[in-house]
Amino acid sequence: MRQVLLLAQRSVIRTLRQPAMVFPSVFFPLLLLSINSSGLNSATRLPGFPTDSYFQFAIAIPFIQGALFSAMSAGTNVANDIETGFLNRLSLTPLRRVALMLGQLTGILALGLIQAATFLLVGIAFGDGLAAGLGGVPVLILLSLTISLAFGCIGAWVALRTGNGEAVQGVFPLFFAALFLSSMSLPRDLIETDWYRTVATYNPVSYMLEGIRSLFIVGWDAEALALGFACAGGVAAIAITASSMALRTRMVRT
Amino acid sequence: MSDAAIETQGLVREFKKGPRAVDGIDLRVEPGEVYGFLGPNGAGKSTTVHMLTTLLPPTSGRAWVAGHDVVEDGAAVRATIGAALQDAALDPFLTAREHLRLQTALHGMTGAEARERSNQLLERVGLVNAADRRVGGYSGGMRRRLDLALALVHRPRILFLDEPTTGLDVQSRSALWEEVQRLAADRGVTVFLTTQYLEEADVLADRIGIIDRGQIVAEGTPEALKDEIGRPTVEATPQDPADLGRTREVLARFGEPVPGSPKGAAVRLGGGDADLADVVRALDAESIEIEELQLHAPTLDDVFLAKTGRSLEGEAAPAEPAPA
Amino acid sequence: MSRGSFTSVARALAWRNIHNWFTNPTLIVPSLLFPLFFFTAFAGGLSRVDSIPGFDYAANYTTWIYGFVLLQAATFGGVFTGFSVARDFESGFARRLMLGAVNRGGIVAGYWLSALVRAATTITVVTIVALIAGLQVTGGGIDLIGLYVLAFLLNTVAMLFGTGVAMRLRTMQAGPLIQTPAFLLLFLAPVWLPYDLLTGWVHAAAAVNPLTLVLDTERGFLVGDPTKVLPAFLVVLLLVALTILWSRGGLRSAERAA
User: Fold this and answer.
1) Last-in-domain residue among B193, B226, B259
2) What is the pTM of this model?
3) What's the per-residue H, E or C state across chain A?
4) Which of A214, B197, B264, C118 is deepest in the core (most CB within 10 A)?
């Protein structure tokens, strides 16, 4: 337990001491939200659009974009540890792999918490608030952190498998694609292009967005929340498992 | 169970689609000894260290460190060794004190004991004033010193240093040498040191193993190895550069040519020091005016040259495959 | 300064940049993928918005988005060339150019030529994909010439701007400083909806954004009904003139440091 705490502390300190990583992961999603909600507000006039504020619809997007930044940050940190030999140093101590893994995850969650809190405050300040009320706040934070964990562990997995930061950067377009080919810009039932709607329907990111969105627009939509948690949790479970296996290979010790 | 500090038998490491980085090494290091593992880039030094420190399993062969088998008893090996590997392996966002706090805690030290040990080590490596600055701003010498301090946290009996002074300035290098000598002399720590610097091996090591292309080609004390070669080198620089060719011809009568300065000719004297007078007479007989005449005692590079046909100082082999 | 040396420097550098771009997947793939990606995502995901009352355009939404993606590809072709300049300075290669080139103006010209080729390649790929996806071009030959000339002029503006920044900073830190203004200029314009359907601060920003005019004209070329052609070209030519001065200043700055 103490090992986990120490490594978690290191992970958090490291994250917070890199403003160049923290600031863009909060600022850019908000900038894009501002541009999108102003540029596409008229889309709310489409019959069947669930709200008359595009801001309220789009506020879910920064939560996902923030998670993508978390993925890059986590992956880059792990890759740095491998490239500098710091992982070898840790391997020579009595440190257990699971402690290292949990420590890394804590750093991801710390950044995720900063992002979620910021986006939530912006959503309340500039939008119509959270339809789910005060009780929705912990649910929103939990869902957001699960999403951050899912993407963060994917980033860590890439770093552990490849051992270099460039490979982590190279994955960014894939994440980008996953976000765009979803119900990011319009509700799924308003997407006109058949193939696009099909892809969005099979894309777990759509359900993560819709889960968060439901808390802002509808309040308590059990189906949307269940699907959101299931997709985020499912991706997180797969990513954590894959990362653990990759760590076992990377941190080979006799 | 071996009573040596480090022992290997037929140690081999092969990489996929690559050469044998370590090709059957037998060595034995006694407790309290400083063993220098000398070789050019790509010789297999770091791969050997990675196997001995349990970071890389051998392909075949066996090795024991502090009496524990490196494959079967890795955890016990790790408990008794410290290692400062080729990369300084530091987190640029942490301070030295934070590094030490992490390292002491990972080795099970807590509270006052951890703090005291950290302060002791900071003082020992001369980083007290920089202890609360982030490592990202440290010089190369400071990083190496912190690296060494971290390797010593748990008072290991055996210390592995993988090219510890590569890239350091002369002052930092001397400081590190002093620390290694103090560790061995005062505390009886066994030091396994890899290096590509002749002088470092010569100064620090009680015994040296010279490795080339994955195999040990020579082993012994620095003096014994040099005595084995036995023959000095003479180098003559003519006053008139146009006489260089004739100077070479004259010297070639007294031994085999060896690499020297671009303006001079050098040979290893077949008859030892006694030939020097004859060399002078021969040059005089040819009316070659000499600007400088030097007699060099055998060096470890001469040893390497004798064993491998190549000069260690001029050699640049392809890099070893990355162990991880 | 001889014209021959200007041309030979420009040609040699252009060849090297174009060769590197085509033979290096990490450079060419993102340049091609991102515009394609935006095109697919917007045309596919947002096509329903053309049924919003007030959205009057004489072609389908794919064509509407193509107008934007064309300019985006052209602009970012110039931006990425700016990145190349920054990278060359950071690696030391640019110092070699500065010391070796008889005519240093040829250096900027060389980067410009390579920017044009990069933009032309990307635009060709995007256009082919757009045609397959249902792009409806009803403009005539003159319209198409106007369409692509305007795009390549914008590519020149972006390239000269990026080069000016890169030559002043001479490190990859220039990247965000080149990219961010280009990004803002592109997105604070009627990207997804016509100007009249924009709301809030983006509507206000688009009113003063020169790209709004250019984008409108481009979309007009596509349907054979271009409006404000002369003002659009004048604005872009003015930007070209300003960025020529900007990049010249950058070259002087780099010369002083060489």
Assistant:
1) B226
2) 0.79
3) CHHHHHHHHHHHHHHHCCHHHHHHHHHHHHHHHHHHHHHCHHHHHCCCCCCCCHHHHHCHHHHHHHHHHHHHHHHHHHHHHHHHCHHHHHHCCCCCHHHHHHHHHHHHHHHHHHHHHHHHHHHHHHCCCCCCCCCHHHHHHHHHHHHHHHHHHHHHHHHHHHCCHHHHHHHHHHHHHHHHCCCCCCCHHHCCCHHHHHHHHHCHHHHHHHHHHHHHHCCCCHHHHHHHHHHHHHHHHHHHHHHHHHHHHHCCCC
4) C118
